[in-house]
Design goal:
- Belongs to the ABC transporter superfamily.
- The structure is a single chain.
- This protein has 358 residues and is an alpha+beta fold.
- The protein folds into two domains: 4-235, P-loop containing nucleotide triphosphate hydrolases (Rossmann fold, 3-Layer(aba) Sandwich), CATH 3.40.50; 249-352, Nucleic acid-binding proteins (OB fold (Dihydrolipoamide Acetyltransferase, E2P)).
- It has eight helices and 23 strands.
- β7 (161-165), α5 and β8 form a beta-alpha-beta unit.
- α2 crosses α3 (113-126) and α2 packs parallel to α4.
- The two termini are 36 Å apart.
- Bound molecules: adenosine-5'-triphosphate (ATP).
- The site of adenosine-5'-triphosphate (ATP) has 11 residues, from α1.
- Adenosine-5'-triphosphate binds at residues 13, 24, 42, 44-50, 199.
């Protein structure tokens, strides 16, 4: 297993790139811990695959270096990086048995047959395919074939990292849930460094210890699922994570008071705002309280989503969402208060510290 160093990496698909906007991947500079489970999360086109391909060696970055445990591997081809990869669609040898498919990466490296058997048996148990070990892969469902691909990704114990590129795309929703939980368990048992690309927040949040949120070619935050929910660093993280996402309201700020339209909201501390041009107040729908006290709102819609209700309302001329428990009443003359500890102030999209939180 290895620590993955991303040393001032940038990538442009055109040689003529000059401005930041010409780069599919803007500067990335981070160290990912040995044995960590990282998910690269972001919408289509944000640069996830570009970054994954740079780690795997399918792409050479325009600038910067990639390091495995401090060793520069930037110019090494994929085969020499000692990584395992699991792709979106199963890569399975139909004519081989399930056992032989899993044994393939080990036999390829001339691992002694007794060791192959022990390791493959262990993986077969982990992915619940032991009863099918002798069956030919041909004719198995896509789910089962993808389980074999996952197992093959996990079979070697000497890899630097295992890279997963949207591995559950072809899997039906129930099986997705099962495999996601198994993968998390496998990570805990094995301690492999894992990097998992997805645009699905549920997948990222359930799999990863650290979620790497990407937006427009940049990493905007690396954090635990709780960090992303409680303290998003960027407005993109606020509205991309959560369902519905964070409410973002244009504000002006004077000392410890934020003004939204004609309403005043007292903050937990004075935000340290520099000369930024655009200020927003962020509050998650879960931390807006609806009752008979506070600031007026006009409710436009109530969506019943089972154990919760989502209330859509107009607050000081801005649309906001409020999450209520299913049995919470909605008063006729509804008003809102904001939990001051849950408010974030964002200047030009980035969270600013307050005197109390710094
Ligand atoms: N081979 C290529 N040549 C030119 N531009 C490319 C190439 N591959 C990707 N891009 C561009 O680089 C940007 C980042 O693409 P990338 O595939 O890394 O995003 P992604 O987040 O993985 O998206 P998806 O989830 O759709 O795969 C996009 O604007 C894309 O159009």
């Amino acid at each position: 297993m290895a620590r993955i160093g991303l040393d001032h990496i940038r990538h442009a698909y055109s040689d003529a790139a000059k401005a930041a906007g010409d780069y599919a991947l803007k500067e990335v500079h981070h160290d990912w811990e040995d044995g960590g489970a990282y998910a690269l999360l972001g919408p289509s086109g944000c640069g996830k695959t570009t970054l994954l391909n740079i780690i795997s060696g399918l792409l050479t970055p325009s600038d910067g270096r990639i390091l495995f445990d401090g060793r520069d591997v930037t110019d090494l081809p994929t085969e020499q990086r000692n990584i395992a990869q699991v792709f979106q669609f199963p890569v399975v040898y139909d004519t081989m048995s399930v056992f032989d498919n899993l044994a393939f990466p080990l036999r390829n490296r001339h691992v002694p047959e007794a060791e192959v058997k022990a390791r493959v048996d262990e993986i077969l148990q982990m992915i619940d395919l032991a009863p099918m070990a002798k069956r030919r892969a041909e004719g198995l469902t896509a789910d089962l074939k993808q389980k074999i691909s996952l197992g093959r990704g996990l079979v070697r114990s000497d890899v630097n990292a295992i890279l997963f590129d949207e591995p559950l795309t072809v899997i039906d929703p129930y099986m997705k849930w099962v495999l996601r939980s198994q993968l998390k368990r496998l990570h805990r048992q094995s301690g492999f460094t894992m990097v998992y690309v997805t645009h699905d927040q549920t997948e990222a949040l359930t799999f990863a210890d650290k979620v790497v949120v990407m937006h427009d070619g940049q990493i905007v935050q690396i954090g635990t699922p709780a960090d992303l929910f409680e303290r998003p660093s960027h407005t993109f993280v606020g509205y991309f994570i959560g369902s519905p996402g964070m409410n973002l309201l244009p504000v002006t700020v004077e000392g410890q008071t934020a003004h939204v339209g004609g309403e005043q909201i007292v903050l937990s501390g004075a935000p340290k705002i520099g000369t930024s041009s655009k200020l927003e107040l962020g509050i998650r729908p879960e931390f807006v309280r609806l009752g008979t006290e506070g600031m007026p709102v006009t409710i436009s819609k109530v969506e019943d989503i089972g154990r919760q209700k989502i209330v859509r309302a107009d607050f000081a001329g801005q649309p906001i969402a409020i999450v209520l428990a299913e049995d919470e009443p909605i008063p006729a003359d509804a008003r809102v208060t904001f939990d001051s500890q849950a408010i974030g102030i964002f200047a030009d999209s980035w969270r600013v510290e307050t005197e109390a939180s710094a």
